[in-house]
Amino acid sequence: MVNYREGLTGRLKAVLFDMDGVLFDSMPNHVYAWSHAMTKYGLAMTHEEVYMNEGRTGSATINMLAQRFWGRDATEEEKHLIYEAKSKVFNTCPEAKPMHGALEALQAVKAKGLKIVLVTGSAQTSLLDRLERSYPGFFHQNLMVTGFDVKLGKPYPEPYLKGLQKAGIKPEEGIVVENAPLGVEAGHAAGIFTIAANTGPLADEVLMNAGADIVLPGMIDVAKFFSN
Ligand code: CA
């Protein structure tokens, strides 16, 4: 880690942050909503499985369970109904709080004069407002990649490649901060040094196997990484 940082001097230009599970503690809401919706339709999704598949589209997630429990693909109608049920429960959940340590991480990155880029699969329309409320002054519309910007989301590298493009940098000039296996895969596939902040219940090995260059226990440790 230390050697890597020394090698970075003068080379690092931007840090690309994922949002759910990195900037906001939103995964418990997703876990709650997915398990309720799946149960309602006779499927079962464990908490760990929600974390394992974080970032997969709703349609692909539903289909994965339909194949396992029903031995066939889910129909478009089933996908629609189950996803609607998930969204309905999710919208009743309390707004996710900022992740512990994320503000400090952003401050440390900003203090180094590095660009802050958001790379999320989320396609909420009020994303910038929400970011601005929790992290005023850190995010800018022209340095955000959302679910609206990409054809192939995580684990494909496209979101992070778009992030590099928006920041105007090469892969070796950036660092990705991710929490989920599919997000780590995406950062790694884009050729960017990827820090996994293990803010959920998965084993560190899962994130290492997905291609993480280092795994840190949480965002406070990410803040320390950028503070030295
Ligand atoms: Ca995430």
What does this structure look like?
The chain is α/β, with parallel strands linked by helices and 228 residues long. The protein has two domains: 154 residues, Rossmann fold; 63 residues, Putative phosphatase, domain 2 (DNA polymerase, domain 1, Orthogonal Bundle). The protein contains eleven helices and six strands. Strands 3-2-1-4-5-6 form a six-stranded parallel beta sheet. Helix 10 links the parallel strand 5 and strand 6. Helix 2 crosses helix 5 and helix 6 packs parallel to helix 11. It is globular, with a radius of gyration of 17 Å. The mean pLDDT is 93. Bound molecules: calcium ion. Calcium ion (CA) binds next to loops.
Keywords:
alpha/beta, Rossmann fold, DNA polymerase, domain 1, 2 domains, binds calcium ion
Order of helices and strands: HEHHHHHEHEHEHEHEH
Number of strands: 6
Poorly predicted regions: none
The helix-and-strand class reads alpha/beta
Number of helices: 11
Helix content range: 40-55%
Biggest sheet character? 6 strands, parallel
Q: Which hetero ligands occur in this complex?
A: calcium ion
What is the mean pLDDT?
93
In short:
The protein is an alpha/beta fold and 228 residues long.
What secondary-structure arrangement, pairings included, does this model have?
Layout: H1 2-8, E1 14-17, H2 27-40, H3 47-52, H4 58-70, H5 76-92, H6 102-111, E2 115-119, H7 127-134, E3 144-145, H8 158-167, E4 174-178, H9 181-189, E5 193-197, H10 204-209, E6 214-216, H11 219-227
Parallel strand pairs: 1-2, 1-4, 2-3, 4-5, 5-6
The structure holds calcium ion.
The site of calcium ion has 8 residues, from loops.
